[in-house]
Amino acid sequence: MINTRSYLFTSESVGEGHPDKVCDRISDAVLDACLAIDRSSRVACESYAKCNIVVVGGEITIPSIGQRPVDSVINISSIVREAIRDIGYTHSDDIFHADKVFINNLLTTQSPDIAQGVDARKAKGKKTAEQGAGDQGLMFGYACDETPELMPAPIMFAHRLGRELTRIRKTGKVAWLRPDAKSQVSVAYEGGRPVAVTNVVISTQHAADVDHKTIEKFCIDNIVRKVIPKKLLTPKTEFLINPTGRFVVGGPSGDTGLTGRKIIVDTYGGMGRHGGGAFSGKDPSKVDRSAAYMTRWIAKNIVAAKLARRCEVQVAYAIGHPNPVSVLVDTFGTGITTDEKIAQAVRKVFGLKPAEIITQLNLLRPIYQATSAYGHFGRTDDLDSFTWERTDKVDALLSAI
Q1: pLDDT of 66 over the 90 cut
Q2: Residue 147 burial by CB count (10 A; 0-12/13-18/19+): exposed, middle or buried?
Q3: d(Cα 166, Cα 349) in Å, to the nearest integer?
Q4: How confident is the model at residue 125 (pLDDT cuts 50, 70, 90)?
Q5: How many other C-beta atoms are found inside a 10 Å radius of the C-beta of residue 68?
Q6: Are 207 and 94 contacting, i.e. CB atoms less than 8 angstroms apart?
Q7: Are 284 and 272 in contact (CB under 8 A)?
Q8: Closest-CA residue to 142 (of 155, 133, 157, 132)
Q9: Taking Cα atoms as reference points, which of 74, 79, 78 lies closest to residue 61?
């Protein structure tokens, strides 16, 4: 049934300078570098950052280089420093600085046991010669008609705040802005529809010589009122800007960073479920990432086709096995037909084997650094890269229905 009660829902986003997002960026930068050399690269890269230290670990196999070490074709240190530099940790007072961090490289090759399950070849004990899933697991995709991006309003607004804050910072026109930042938006719902923004929180790192009133006025006037739809702001909307009063020490200097620790920020802000697997640093043979992109593509096309106002798609896989072990469509009572019929149409229109997902979404490309901040979904600014945001299967779904 459609939700008719009144309630508040809150989602947060974090900026690219947040320590966890720094690590996501580094991991995806390593992935992109590998894919640029060899589209068949297998990458599972994790990063850790604290103070002036970055640790990069995980498993990488680049078939085209044979037995040569990864470092012979990819300069990991250079990739790490460039990622940090692009984020903006280049100020003279930064402890965590692009040119000064110490980098520990703990990357090894992929386990042959995992490789034989994923590779499209026969192997002893493997039931098929097709490419299998890189791991077992369950993945979710979600879409709704609350915003033009077909995303939940709270997370979409939070991302917009963060992106605008970063855009202005990188112009250099506001010299006191620093890379670390968080945003949070609370939205009031009535009858399942967003009707007002009740609370906006922005915490932005800043230089030591700027006063709190300047920060507060700038963020309200130039970020919040520019990004949040005017019709949703009311006289009762509360703005909490740097509510601790001071945010000078930020990034990995102030907190520890780790790849994959902001998975709800990466997806739907808690509005849709999450299977648990992180995305960044993983090549698309890992269904944690590729199948999550696939289910978003499916859910978005279902909503774009007006088959439902709200839709969640779940798939699950077994390691080494090509076919999903389950497919579920839930429209939460908003569908124009049964969820079972929509699920049948999904199986007709979309190929759900890992190899099919990779082909349909053209995932074997160095496109992933751009996904590492401000969400993997709702990114309609570049549909050539974010192919899972296309709504190109609407007609096919309607025909199948």
Answers
A1: no
A2: middle
A3: 38
A4: low
A5: 10
A6: no
A7: no
A8: 155
A9: 74
Quote the CA–CA distance of 293 and 360 in Å, as a whole number. Answer: 11
Cα–Cα distance for residue pair 285/114, rounded to 1 Å: 11
Read off the tokens for 336: 């124009």
Coil/strand/helix, residue 130: coil
Which range has the worst mean pLDDT, 61-70, 89-98, 275-284? 61-70
Q: In angstroms, rounded to a whole number, what is the distance separating the alpha carbons of residues 250 and 211? A: 17
Residue 362 tokens read as 């053209």
Contact 226, 164 (CB under 8 A): yes
- Three-state SS at 315: strand
What pLDDT score was predicted for residue 321? 84
| pLDDT of 123 above 70 | no
Strand ranges for 40-192 from DSSP E:
42-50, 53-61, 102-108, 137-144, 177-190
Phi-psi region of 371 (alpha: psi -120 to 50; beta: other; left: phi over 0): alpha
C-alpha 372/C-alpha 58 separation (Å) is: 18
pLDDT in tens, 195-211: 999 999 999 999 999 99
pLDDT in tens, 16-61: 999 999 999 999 999 999 999 999 999 999 999 999 999 999 999 9
116-124's contacts with Cβ under 8 Å and 24+ in sequence apart are 116/320, 117/319, 117/320, 118/42, 118/285, 118/320, 118/354, 120/355
* Residue 128 pLDDT greater than 80, yes or no: no
Supply 292's token pair: 């999550």
